[in-house]
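Reviewers asked in the last cycle whether our approach scales beyond single polypeptides. To address this, we selected a multi-component target totalling 340 residues and predicted its structure end to end. The input consisted of the following lines:
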Amino acid sequence: MMKRLIGLGLIVASLSAQAELQVSNAQIRAVPPTQKITAAFMDISNNSESSIAIVAVETDIADSVEFHTSIRDGEKILMRKVESIPVDSQSTTALTSGGYHLMFFGLKRPLVIDELIELRLRLNDGESKAISVPVKRFIPIN
Amino acid sequence: MRKTLIALLLIIAACTGAYVSYQYQTPAKIPSKYAGANIGGDFVLASADGPVSLAEMRGKVVVLFFGFTSCPDICPTSLAVMRQALDKLSEKDLQRVAGLFISVDPERDSLEHLKAYTAFFSDSIIGATGTQAQIDGVVKQYGAYYSLVPLVNSALGYTVDHSTRIYLIGTDGKLADLLAHDSDPEDLASKIKQLIGS
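The resulting structure, written as structure tokens, was:
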């Protein structure tokens, strides 16, 4: 009985973890057909009591996906790879031009403007979240 | 004697360190006032459609940006700003403006690839590059900055740290203004119109 309860508790907990991660304003940048690299931007909100991190992204459209961040240093901008993207408890992490972004390498086919690309975000707690992200020509500037 | 020698060595080490960090931390300074500033000037680079010579673009406003096509964020943002600004111009004004995207990464950006890349944003934007010496020359002339930086465990291999200004060159070939790469396209368009005199 106790085991069942714990099991049920775990299921409920995992469902709520997913429900409490919200992704909005997600967009993938349209690129020329010859270009094998692109980036995605979005706002990731974590309404749960525990901080999480996005540790991997799965997709069919690219060979690999990495996390990068652009850092302003006076007049210049540096881009660096990061291993994960943190989303603190009760807060939103913006993946935006000039900051964090997902970087796609080895695009397997040209992306069509406005098509929806399926991504699965893998979290550090073992959970994952599937999202559909439209391809956009112009990414709004914050 | 020994103490003096050690002190001397420490001073030399400190000075060398200071010099090296100064070199590293100081990208080319961009003056706050551009009129009469000693940056800018003519150059010749290569494009898929032949040489690109700034001197031969007199009479046109040139919107210049230094970047590289593997850049996923800043460069496409600046080119999208250019595109949206160009969209706000009349057909007549469009004849008097040229976008110019200079790749500082000729190793990865072939002329054909550059052409396909810039054409995606606008046919009015030319993709140009050159030998490392040519690129370094133009970068220096315009007080820009770039540096190739290896990225560990990344499919990108190396990235390019770079300055991010959009340069506005007047119809006389002189540098007229500098804008942020993520400027309001409306603002860029009105500055272009002003320089054309329309």
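Confidence is low (pLDDT under 50) at residues 10-16 of chain A. We regard this as preliminary and will revisit it once experimental data from Aim 1 are available.
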